[in-house]
Amino acid sequence: MVKISAEVPPELSRSLDRIIRDGWFPDHETIVREALESFVEAKSFLGDSPRMLHRFAADALNESKPEVALKFANRALSLLANQHITDFALYQAIVELRVQIFLILGRESDALASLEEAREVLPNIASHLVVVATLEIALAILLEAALSFLGLGVPPPLPSWGLMIAEAKDYMFFSPWVIMIPGAALFVLVLGINLLGDGLRDMFGARTDP
Q1: CA 1 vs CA 4, 40: distances in Å
Q2: Is residue 196 within 8 Å of 119, Cβ to Cβ?
Q3: Most buried of 10, 29, 118, 154 (most Cβ within 10 A)?
């Protein structure tokens, strides 16, 4: 069993004594054990989410707790680095928040170092952003086709493969090529974009992996 010992500030110690006197917990050891169990449960529930950690860091900074906010920001950046950064907006927001925290703490040199680190990281994630953008293009094409098929996309006579498929479904048993041609074109385009994304991922991965 792990034993934990730590110095408790006088104000916090008085609050703990008051809790014990009020009968909430029998002793200090029980308070610490319950607090650690609650923290572990909350950590397991929330998971390691950079976006959630960014929110925690912002909340801690708003509550005038820059040291706590810095811990959250550092953890979020560490997770983004391990997960191969793909959310550029989130990465930029965390870096900006981290620089702001350093400035509040009076650590101007660390703030400049954080900006320099970000300048070194951005070229390295460019390849990942290209791959993600390529795959997102295929998703956007499918989404537009689906909306047009349901009548929620572009209005006629603007061209849309989804709209062409929707208008041709009444003739699919008599003139199947009317619906097969736009469907095949949509399939080939999306497949080609996905294959391009896979090829880019393999190419960039082969360059960056040792």
Answers
A1: 10, 16
A2: no
A3: 118
What type of residue is 94? I
- Residue whose C-alpha is closest to residue 128's, from 182, 163, 85, 183: 85
Give yes or no: residues 99 and 117 share one domain: yes
Structural domain boundaries enclosing 161? 129-208
Please give the Cα distance from 95 to 117 (Å, whole number): 10
pLDDT of residue 210: 42
Could you tell me which of 121, 126, 124, 127 has the C-alpha nearest to residue 202?
127
Among candidate residues 101, 95, 90, 92, the one with its CA nearest the CA of residue 61: 101
Residue 74: CATH number of its domain: 1.25.40
Q: What is the DSSP letter of 27?
A: S
Same domain, 104 and 144: no
Q: Answer yes or no: is 3 within a domain.
A: no
Q: Find tokens 């062409």 and name the residue.
A: 164
- pLDDT averaged over consecutive 10-residue blocks of the chain (210 residues)? 68 80 79 74 62 84 85 83 68 85 85 79 66 80 88 80 85 84 90 84 56
Q: Is the C-alpha dihedral spanning 12, 10, 71, 89 positive or negative?
A: positive
Q: Does residue 197 contact residue 138 with C-beta atoms inside 8 Å?
A: yes
pTM for the model? 0.46
Residue 185 makes CB contacts below 8 A (sequence gap 6+) with 161
